[in-house]
Specification:
- Pfam families: HTH_3 (PF01381).
- Residues 1-55 form the HTH cro/C1-type domain.
- It comes from Tahibacter harae.
- This is Helix-turn-helix transcriptional regulator.
- InterPro entries: Cro/C1-type_HTH, Lambda_DNA-bd_dom_sf.
- The longest helix is centred in the last third of the chain and has 10 residues, at 38-47.
- The radius of gyration is 10 Å and the shape is globular.
- It has 57 residues and is mostly helical.
- 65% of the residues lie in helices and 0% in strands.
Length: 57
Amino acid sequence: MRALRAERGYSQEQRARICGLGRSYVGGAERVARNVSLVNIRKLANALMLSPGEFFE
């Protein structure tokens, strides 16, 4: 996730704002320190302009 976010030029704060999630939550998800729900996977993928399927490829 971090590489995709950086490739698109977003900071964690910007991506968190777009997703409607906290910056610490997004950071934890990037570090794989959180079990991310399907609802939040969709939010994270949408913020990167990806479908959830593309997100996992």
